[in-house]
Amino acid sequence: MLEKKEWTAAEFIAEWIQEHEGEMADISDVIFRHPEVSMQEKESSRYLAECLEEKGFETTWGLAGLETAFLAEWGSEGPVIGFLAEYDALPGLGQEVSSQYSPTGGAGHGCGHNLLGTACAGAACALKAWMEAEKIPGTVQVYGCPAEEIVTGKIIMNKAGIFDGLSAAVTWHPFDRNRVSYDIWQAQDIKNYKFFGTAAHASKHPEMGRSALDAAELMNVGVNYLREHVEDDVRMHYTYTNTDGPANIVPAYASTNYFIRSAKWERTQDASERVDDCARGAALMTGTRVEIERVTCNREMKLNRTLAEIFYQAMRQIPTPEYTKEELDFAAQISGAAGLDNGGTYFSGLEPLEDEPVRLSIGTDVSDVSHTVPTVMLSAAAMCKGTPLHHWAATAQAGMSIGKKGMLYAAECMALGCVRLVQEPKLLEQVWKEHGGSANL
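The structure corresponding to this sequence follows.
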């Protein structure tokens, strides 16, 4: 590299990413080839942590009692910047890119978390290298966060106070476009409803039976009537998780799983309590008993305009990826095979930062962290336009050069945005003032 005095921060970060792009591609490939579902990410987490250790980070394992959660840390003073890395895969989305673009079963990275964790690690390393070269005080941390796909890991970690000492939290997510994620990710309440009745012969002694399945069905009928009387952004969706047994036996057990969501935790909580009442009423009507189990819950994303503008300015300095003919042909083939609605426009440049927050119809456990510490999330095109997450087409692109280009772009954007945070402490004070607290500096 050139003498440090000849580099701007943007040039330094860009050069570091370019010099290490092969290494980052290898990391994402290893995680992609060994997909592990939530709470089982033993190889993925270990490999990512070992790569950070090779770059001078010290690792602590078992955060908040989670086996596959880790903290990789460098530095001991100044502002503390935390990168939130993920690496869990999804069940049923195994994908061989060389096949006819069809799922082959097993786990797969249909949300691009092989790219997500790698980019966070790369951004942290690039930031560390620049801070060392410029002798800038500060601490860089990478949090290995398991089980985002089941909306669990960061919630447990946050409740345990793992993120309390951060000055700011930074992450990204693979999507089909490049932008600051100035989005309100949904507040969610995820529950299981378990009904217990009395079995009986359905023809000979129906009067002795108390059907748990009847209760589950009546609950769902009640919820479907409830939809008319909730806020427009409230979503309530369910599935039956147990309907075993022949029809000539009154079912003694039935269960459902519910996701209740909205853009505000207070609305989600209100709707969730009313869904509970539907379950209790159904149990009363059928002479059964219901147990309500909360699987997990998270609040909506708390946005920080100051952080969003800082990282948007960083993204404006960095060229968005360019694509080869082979990559564009691949995008066309994927679009045709998956029926993607993109009109033949597969990629575009940086999208402007919106004036007002955008409501999303999905949720993430990152949201809970955002209520503890100012948090920013970026989006980068790791798949062509119109590609849905949790889909085999996303898996196919996460394992090839299209996904990797989005990963490298995201890493460079995150690192450059963080340069201003560690270089200009007054910015962090402004970030925390907007957040509603005193800055951790």
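The CA atoms of residues 69 and 342 lie 38 Å apart.
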